[in-house]
Amino acid sequence: MTSGREKAYAYLKENVLTDPDRQDEFLSEQELADRLGLSRTPIREALLLLAAEDLVRLVPRRGAQIVPLSGREITELMELRGIVERYAAERIIPGRAPLAELTELLDRQRALSGPEHAKEFIAVDHLFHATMVAAAGNTLLNRHYDGLRSRQIRAGVVALYNQHGRQQAVLTEHQAILEAVAADDRQAARTAIDGHLETTLKVLLAG
Question: Where are the transmembrane segments (predicted)?
Answer without folding.
Answer: none
